[in-house]
Design goal:
The chain has about 700 residues and is an alpha/beta fold. The protein contains 30 helices and eleven strands. Probable transporter of a GTP-driven Fe(2+) uptake system.
Length: about 700
């Protein structure tokens, strides 16, 4: 086995710590793709388990048993039943949770009967001990007939021992147990015997799965008909066979645990987690606590980010003014100041808020409270056609709709999954945060209620809640039009409460800031530079006429030269290519309270919503001679042709609502097409969200103006 690769599949129940173990084993040697034919993540990586022996480890989706219900569970099932053409593991690592051993041993026992070489990695032993559960690992190993290695991936404990066991199994020092965990043949003796005549390589337990799920296997028509005939001949009953199997497995598991696992008296005091859940999951107080948590989240985002944001904004204002004084008047200096510097300010000023928002969300996830939000909201979700599992993608949508939509894969019900995908973009993602921030600062007074509660923070929270409410309304309406009939189940395992891993929080904050600056920043910078060109140049005849007109006016009225110079720059901007485009769009958006500059921003932000700020920075820099002013000050001073301010409370709220509800994200449309395998749903999404945004924004403007 020296100097060769070993293919190892990592399997286990959801929430057993599989991802932590995979990351610990593979480190940075990872790649992510998709399993063929399905939109399920395919994570693989490599690690050296012994000198000269490299293991190719593939992390299979979590599953509770070998009876799959979801698309990701079918992926794992097909690999384990050797029905996947690409993934052919030589052996398995099976991660089992010691604190939920009875449930985990069901899957362990099924894997044993598949006759795969397997090493069991036993995790969460520290948590089991806190619960008063003590496991005799050696006794359990003897009973099961497979190597069991205690591990703690978070603390890197047990990893060398696990690698050694994997190497020994690869060298066939450990083999799959010869004896079945339960007498599988007795479940359907005649049918199994008949199957094995035609498929001699199958174990008794594999034969049962051929009888139950052969329709989903890669068998030719003749073999499919053969298995069907065997089922009919022996009157094979899949439901009864499965029920008998599970009952027998749990009966033997109970016997094994009686001898090898000591559990606390159930009358002993409940754990801290259970006590806390009585408060946080209370039918009344639970919802009040949830609203309070969200309230504090958005207040904190505004309050904590205010000072660094002000400092960044002031610095760029000073920098722009300084460059305008020292650089000569030329096209390249104009490009540098009004294109590059203005674009950079539009990117970096929002980094503090994005870092704080993601940091707080990571804390909620790490402590275990996020799963409680799913549990609390399941009843409400069901009324609108969803279930509690839809909440996790929706909450993830507050960060970014793209990974949020992909995370909807673990919703078993097809209709609920599709509804979740359709409404998740209505959640206020981090790309909307820069738009909300600058508009709230512009039109909402920086007042405090009772001296502590920020009005601006309340408006921000109101926008996020409005997105949720609109999503629920849309889901309620859409459920009557999507004709998919399928039973819905909501099974959720609540993780124990834990202190947040501060290193993880900081790493997430830094990574999200990097992603924003590099990914969104690239788009913002490119569009800022294109906009500078479109705003600085226009049809030569029109631009020449403007220059000539103001040259004559300056000659006739030299004393009015400063005022005329400002008017000249404004006229040049209006006659530029960007100005012409904005003017053509203006009649459509005037009913919403917007001017032509906002119209340009609506177009450019389709690439990415956060481009709005870069667009504004460029447009207000190119027609403005005072580069020392902050962008907010320039926007506050903006006037329409009749002299009225552009950014009134009515126009500002209308614009925030438009950005809240409109589908202005090409990446989201692309991922919806990928997940639904059709352009039908992205087109429906684009049409309904744009229409909804226009109507609700118009209503808001009419009510507030």
């Amino acid at each position: 086995m020296q100097n060769r690769n070993v293919n190892i599949a990592l399997v286990g129940n959801p929430n057993s710590g599989k991802t932590s173990l995979f990351n610990t084993l593979t480190g940075l040697n990872q790649k992510v793709g998709n399993f063929p034919g399905v939109t399920v993540d395919k994570k693989s990586g490599s690690c050296e388990i012994a000198p000269g022996t490299v293991a190719n480890i593939i992390d299979l989706p979590g599953t509770y048993s070998l009876y799959p219900k979801r698309a990701d569970e079918w992926v794992t099932y097909k690999v384990l039943l050797e029905q996947d053409e690409e993934v052919k593991p030589d052996m398995l690592i099976l991660l089992a949770d010691a604190s939920n051993l009875k449930r985990n041993l069901l899957f362990v026992s099924q894997i044993i009967d598949l006759k795969f070489p397997v090493v069991v990695a036993l995790s969460m032993l520290d948590l089991a001990q806190k619960k008063g559960i003590n496991v005799d690992v050696e006794g359990l190993e003897r009973e099961l007939g497979v190597p069991i290695i205690p591990v703690n991936p978070r603390k890197n404990k047990g990893i060398p021992q696990l690698k050694k066991a994997l190497f020994q199994t690869a060298q066939q020092l450990y083999k799959a147990p010869a004896r079945d965990f339960i007498p599988n043949r007795e479940l359907a003796a005649d049918a199994i015997e008949n199957i094995q005549v035609h498929f001699p390589s199958l174990s008794d337990y594999q034969s049962i799965h051929y009888l139950i799920n052969h329709e989903n296997f890669t068998l030719d028509n003749d073999k499919q008909e053969l298995v069907e005939s065997i089922e009919a001949k022996h009157k094979f009953n899949p439901t009864k066979t499965q029920a008998d199997e599970i009952m027998q497995r749990y009966h033997r598991i109970k016997q094994i645990m009686t001898v090898n696992v000591s559990e606390p008296d159930p009358l002993q005091k409940t754990l801290f987690t259970e006590k806390l859940d009585k408060i946080l999951l209370h039918r009344r107080w639970g919802y009040l606590i949830l609203l309070s948590v969200l309230f504090l989240l958005f207040q904190s985002v505004f309050w904590l980010a205010q000072f660094p944001m002000d400092a960044i904004e002031w610095s760029f204002g000073e920098l722009g003014g300084w460059f305008s004084k020292i650089l000569p008047e030329a096209w390249w200096s104009d490009l540098f100041i009004n294109g590059i510097v203005a674009g950079l300010s539009g990117i970096l000023v929002f980094v503090p808020q994005i870092m704080i928002l993601f940091g707080l969300i990571t804390i909620l996830e790490d402590t275990g409270y996020m799963a409680r939000i799913s549990f609390l909201t399941d009843k409400l979700m069901r009324k609108v056609g969803l279930n509690g599992k839809s909440v996790m993608p929706m909450i993830s949508g507050f960060a970014c709709a793209v990974p949020a939509i992909m995370s909807a894969r673990n919703i078993e019900n097809k209709k609920e999954r599709l509804l979740t995908i359709l409404i998740t973009p209505l959640m206020s993602c981090s790309a909307r945060l820069p738009v909300f921030t600058i508009l709230i600062a512009l039109v909402i007074p920086a007042k405090k209620i009772w001296g502590i509660i920020s009005v601006q923070g309340l408006v921000m929270m109101g926008l996020y809640l409005l997105g949720v409410v609109m999503a629920l309304i849309v889901s309620y309406v859409a459920k009557w039009f999507i004709k998919i009939q399928e039973k819905s189940f909501f099974i959720l395992e609540l993780p124990v409460y834990r202190a947040p891993r501060w290193k993880n929080v900081i790493v997430t904050m830094v990574n999200k800031a990097k992603i924003f600056v590099t990914d969104a920043g690239k788009v913002i910078m490119v569009i800022s530079l294109i906009l500078w060109a479109l705003s600085s140049y226009g049809p030569s005849q029109r631009m020449h006429n403007v220059e000539q007109k103001y040259a004559e006016m300056k000659q006739a009225n030299p004393s009015d030269a400063p005022i005329l110079e400002k008017q000249r720059k404004t006229a040049l901007l209006e006659n530029s290519y960007a100005g012409i485009l904005g003017k053509k769009l203006e009649p459509v958006i005037t009913p919403l309270g917007y001017d032509w500059k906002i119209g340009i921003a609506l177009i450019t932000s389709f690439a990415a919503r956060e481009v709005f700020v870069g667009t504004m920075a460029t447009l207000y820099s190119v027609g403005d001679e005072d580069d020392g002013l902050l962008l907010r000050q320039k926007m506050a001073a903006a006037r329409k042709t009749d002299g009225s301010p552009v950014y009134t409370v009515a126009a500002g709220v209308s614009l925030m609502i438009f950005y809240l509800l409109a589908m202005q994200c090409m990446s989201t449309l692309a991922v919806v097409k990928r997940e639904t395998r059709s352009w039908k749903w992205p087109v429906i999404q684009l049409v309904y969200m744009t229409g909804l945004a226009y109507v609700v924004s118009w209503l808001a403007y009419e009510l507030l103006k």
